[in-house]
Amino acid sequence: MRLLRSGVIKLSHGGSSMSKRFSWFKILMVVACSLAMVATSIGTAKAWEPKMPVEFIIPAGAGGGADVMARFIAPIISKHKLSPKPFVVINKSAGAGAEGFMYVKGQKGNPHVIIITLDNLFTTPLATGVPFHWKDMTPVAKLALDYFILWVHTDTPYKTAAEYFDAVKKSPGKFVMGGTGAKQEDQVLTVLIEQTYGLKFNYVPFKGGGAVAVELVGKHIDSTVNNPSEAVSHMKNGTLRALAVCDNERIDLPDWKQVPTLKESTGKDVSYLMLRGIFMAPGVKPDELAFYVDVFKKVSETPEWKKYVTDMGLKDSFLAGDEYVKWLEAKDKEVKELMTSGGLLK
Amino acid sequence: MAENMQLLMSGIGTALMPVNFITAIVGLALGIIVGVLPGLGGANGVAILIPLTVAMDPVAGIILLASIYWGALYGGGITAILFNIPGEPWSVAVTFDGYPLANKGEPGKALVLSFLAHSVGAVIGVILLSFFAPIIAAFALMFGPSEVFAVMMLTFSAFVGLGGKDAVKSCVSIFIGFLLACVGMDIVTGEMRMTFGSIDLMAGFDFIIAVIGLFGLGEILLTVEEGLKIEGKAGKISLKDVKDGFVIICKEWKALVLGVGIGAWMGLKPGGATPASFMAYGFAKQGAKNKDEFGKGAYAGIIAPEAATHSAGTSAALPMITLGIPGSPTMAVIMGGLMIFGLIPGPMLFKEHATFVWAFIGSCWVGNILGLFIVMAFAPLFAAILRVRFAIIMPIIVYVCAIGAYAVNNRMIDIYYMIVFGVFGYLFKKLDYPIAPMVLALVLGGMAESALRQSLLMSGGNPGVLIGLKINEAGRLEISWLCLLIMIAAFIIFFWPSISGFLEKRKKASA
Amino acid sequence: MRKANVGLAVFFLALGALCLYDSVRIGFRWLPVTGPGPGFLPFYLALGCVVGSALIILREFKKEDKGLPLIPEGGLGPILWVLIPSTVMLMIVPIFGLHAAALIYIAFYMKVVGKIEVYKCALISILFPVSLYIIFDKVFLIPLPSGILGDYLFGPVGKLYDVIF
What we know:
Strand content of chain A: 15-25%
CATH superfamily of the largest domain in chain A: Bordetella uptake gene, domain 1
Order of helices and strands of chain B: HHHHHHHHHEEHHHHHHHHHHHHHEEH
Strand content of chain B: under 5%
CATH architecture of the largest domain in chain A: 3-Layer(aba) Sandwich
Number of helices of chain A: 14
Oligomer: heterotrimer
Helix content of chain A: 40-55%
Structural class of chain B: mainly alpha
Order of helices and strands of chain A: HHHEHEHEHEEHEHEHEHEHEHHEH
Radius of gyration of chain A: 23 Å
Number of strands of chain A: 11
Distance between the termini of chain A: 53 Å
Largest interface: B-C, 60 and 70 residues
Helix content of chain B: over 70%
Strand order of the largest sheet of chain B: 1-2
CATH topology of the largest domain in chain A: D-Maltodextrin-Binding Protein, domain 2
């Protein structure tokens, strides 16, 4: 009777009066469904499974990091038969992702909507004043974390982060730090660096990570905090220099082993990583949540995923349940403090 | 060069392998469909098929994605010419002359001209991609925010001649276009502008939706005003059209060269295909002797923007492969596809994955040339749609446009916007407000504003940076000649009508 | 034509005023270090829009000649015949879904306006939505609005597609 139940859910969505008025329709559906059930004889699995295609929302535009990841995960799920219904990827990017978050918030109790998030989960509500908080959704899992690296052009004399920071200190506000978007992760990290080292950058926002890296290659700006994948090719080509990783450990991947951490370079510990995680609509049942946790756990164990993580220079760190919530709470607090003290909020 | 030639040949060889060849045909056909459907652009088309390619061999996968793009480039102009409904943002400029020509009873000729111009643009773009990639990548690197702003000014100045008869109304319509472009999030400060707390307004007004309404629905309303027509229009395409097309395109070689040149340049860094097509149209009109014919079905008014579109579309692959910056929204999505294959775009792609890159370039040759034949084969089919009776085709057009408007952002409200824009399109036409400059302001407003503000931020608020004058960290003056030159060109072209008028007067006085 | 001209100009005037208000709120000044604020450009654009529309209104009232009517005689009917059915179709989307609403819309338009034979109407109005449903919802996986009933109306088609492919 799985199909029938999905029908009832859909009807009651439109209002209870509707479901009464269309009771004849239900009868018709019962007939149709029982026919369909004979055709597609279902297994005996008792656990919850999706009954219709799952909407996989991306709160960012097509072609960006989150978009690429979602479009990578969706076919893995079909390929390894992790879900009986396909995951359909939909971009809702308006207002730095506010559109996507508000959409999921409004889908209370709907188990067929999930969303992939990046740090705009924390920054967007603070920056735009949209009435949304990540607690308005159900956390599913943290898939990976994205590193930030401090980059300069190889033609500049700075060999370490300490040297570069000294130069910035001498002429405050003159060095241009490029990043993606305003009041988002790149700017928050810039604030963190400024506060830790007592510096002042001139932060200039651009449209995408790749564009920021190229502005640096073209020497239009002085430094960036690009993610590894956005600048790796320029590093290998010898135009960009990675000064330091903004984390307390070096990146454990062959291409990145030689890049020191900020702590090694300057003595001060600065760690900032970007979330790549999954959420569901609020008010879903535990068995529905368990299904998605399981799916993404399995995704993170596939060889394709391992290769992807290596290619993109990500920190593979699957996390679910209470620990994930704790991580989110800590991160949320940090971002809020930085944005407030950095003057990014009014 | 010789080495490149050899690599290119092996790349073409790979692209001609049966599997890849068939993939290309499938991709092109899908791309043409995606291009024809208004709203459903190349970017959507590619994004939708990325999950399919994950299971494929990377070479076949990238050929599929790229072929969709080539197909969408070819197909975008079809509905623009036949129904005044641009299937893609970059085919807005071709409506200005393509639709009038089709309306005169020569849809075949208009389509053939568009396709031929596309193919020439494509070939030039691919030649650049094959042989001059490193030089051109270095050129693209020279464009910082202030240079981009100068290019935007140049594009706007090309459109001076496109205003209506009524100067005040032209201004108001441009202002409205810019204001619409401002709605949503400000990229520099992250502030919400003119959204009044509404999530729907945060998404702003999508250019393609405004265009479907203003041009497409507006045109339908204008047509029915004279009574509901029962019969369809004449719409035959014959081999003679193809022959005529060749002759015309040879005669109008200036427009062709202009279009290809502007396209190749704009695809590299600042704007991509959409601004390229506008700029090419504006320049073709300004440089033409028969200015009055523009807007009534001038051949050059079809050739220049279409050639620019495709050459920009192809050359946009260059910065994507060599630098990792997409030259157009569609390229951004294709780049995402490459990353899924584990191929990180950037200068190392050529070195580390040479076979892959050359197979891709080879498929650009094969795909674009194949595309011309496929789209030509489709043409009679599309032209035949014109003969369908109005009572059948009108509701279907509205339905397809509604799907397209929805597919842009997956939002129902966009369909309502489309209808509202349709009513405004009708009012604008009737009351003599020019639509073209408004649309240009809407599509380029955001890019121009962010370039302006980024340059000013970087210079510490010193407006000298806009003409290329910078004070560096040591306090010395630096001049960006590129920026200065483009700015001067923009000014000359902006005032050209008055300058040429003045020169003529002097000529007459001295004679 | 005068009424329409004034009407549209008043609309633009109001629009401009609204934008003017908002750009003042977010800060329209040219600041010394950061250059123009977020409201700088919108402020002057809106100002231009307000001034321009005011000029248009003044000019219309100075003119002696009222001009031709906006819509020529007999033109309003056909225009409404396009606009009203389209709007009604959009209104019923939340109930029937886009494809089914379009089915009704196409059939209605062909039959009532085009006076086309019933079998042709039925054929075309069913064929198009069904094929577009398959293309978008099934092949491209772009879920279009399905409303309350859309899934039931087109579900069987989807099932059939799934079975075949």
